[in-house]
Amino acid sequence: MCGDHQWEIERGVDKSSVICVVKGFYRNGVYHSCKELPYRMYSFFWTLALPLRKFAFGLHRKLKRKLINRMVSVPSVDFFIYRQIEHSVI
Predict the structure, then answer these.
(1) The pTM is what?
(2) 3 state SS of 59
(3) How far apart are the first and last CA of the chain?
């Protein structure tokens, strides 16, 4: 078994451990069956991409971290105004 946000197959999961099986879902208030062609295509390609998921999730995590670090490390306009006021008073 391997969910959407996993990249390793869980072995040894008994049928008795499965609580439910998704038959459909709502997206933006519209019901979509798991038997619809677009979802079946998504499921097929996502299953094929299993070996690439670890790389893709890792890349996503690194890019997100770099973006957050860049946003945090850039001083705000208020910081520059405060620094100018501080230097002009001295």
Answers:
(1) 0.50
(2) helix
(3) 66
Whole-number Cα distances in Å, 39 to 8, 26, 69: 22, 12, 36
| φ/ψ (deg, to 5) at 27 | -135, 120
Q: Which amino acid is at 17?
A: S
pLDDT confidence tier of residue 36, bands split at 50, 70 and 90 = very high
In angstroms, the CA 3 to CA 42 distance is: 13
> What is the DSSP code (8-state) at residue 20?
-
Q: How many CA atoms lie within 13 A of 84 on its CB side?
A: 5
**Chain CA centroid to CA 90, Å:** 49
Average pLDDT on 28-51 reads 88
**Is the pLDDT assigned to residue 71 strictly greater than 80?**
no
In contact, 28 and 22? CB cutoff 8 Å = no
